[in-house]
């Protein structure tokens, strides 16, 4: 069907999100942490999630070869989170992002998947600058960005958004 990259780590499969992930995306995007830390995407039904995947995730995947990925635990095949590289308006370089269902946080999965994507972005896609953004209150995300080798640069606002975000950067 496509030749987009699927990644494998010691404990995880990381593959491009597709329409078959709609129920999982619906669940993840409606967790309290997602809404608080990333924002409400108005995904109220599984059909909304399908449309979000079709309209927000797949176009970038087709255009650049990378986008949002679904993270699947090898041991049982459960979808546990997402991790991706994003071409985000208002940011120079590619944005790395991650989110996991609450029961799979603090187990190293976010670092494992994000580190693999960072390495692949640099080696396969020749990305020389990776950004990460987070809100002031999201200390876990800040720690993970630093563990990935990104350094705090400054406080920014994205276009059409007045929320202050912390910008982290990695430059190859």
Shape: globular
What is the CATH architecture assignment?
A: 3-Layer(aba) Sandwich
- The CATH superfamily is known as Gcn5-related N-acetyltransferase (GNAT)
Distance between the termini: 33 Å
Descriptive notes:
The chain has 172 residues and is α+β, with helices and mostly antiparallel strands. The protein has one domain: Aminopeptidase (3-Layer(aba) Sandwich). It contains 5 helices and 8 strands; from the N terminus they run E-E-H-H-H-E-E-E-H-E-H-E-E. The longest helix is centred in the first third of the chain and has 19 residues, at 46-64. It is globular.
What tags apply to this protein structure?
172 residues; alpha+beta; Aminopeptidase; eight-stranded mixed sheet; 5 helices; 33% helix; 27% strand
Q: How do the strands and helices of this protein lay out in sequence?
A:
Layout: E1 7-8, E2 12-16, H1 22-29, H2 32-37, H3 46-64, E3 68-73, E4 79-86, E5 94-100, H4 109-123, E6 129-134, H5 139-147, E7 151-156, E8 165-171
Parallel strand pairs: 5-6
Antiparallel strand pairs: 1-2, 2-3, 3-4, 4-5, 6-8, 7-8
Task: Please provide a brief summary of the model.
The chain is of the alpha+beta class. The protein has five helices and eight strands. It has an eight-stranded mixed beta sheet.
């Amino acid at each position: 069907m496509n030749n987009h990259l699927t990644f494998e780590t010691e404990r995880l499969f990381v593959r491009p999100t597709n329409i078959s992930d709609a129920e999982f995306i619906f669940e993840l995007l409606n967790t309290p942490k997602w809404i608080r830390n990333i924002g409400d995407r108005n995904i109220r039904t599984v059909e909304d999630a399908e449309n979000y995947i079709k309209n927000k995730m797949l176009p970038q995947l087709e255009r650049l070869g990378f986008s949002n990925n679904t993270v699947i635990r090898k041991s049982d095949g459960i979808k546990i989170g997402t991790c991706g590289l994003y071409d985000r308006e208002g940011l120079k370089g590619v944005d790395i992002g991650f989110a996991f269902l609450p029961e799979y946080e603090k187990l190293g999965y976010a670092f494992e998947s994000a580190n693999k994507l960072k390495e692949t972005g640099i080696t396969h896609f020749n990305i020389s600058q990776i950004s990460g953004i987070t809100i002031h209150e999201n200390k876990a995300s800040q720690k993970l960005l630093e563990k990935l080798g990104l350094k705090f640069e400054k406080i920014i606002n994205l276009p059409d958004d007045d929320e202050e975000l912390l910008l982290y950067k990695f430059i190859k």
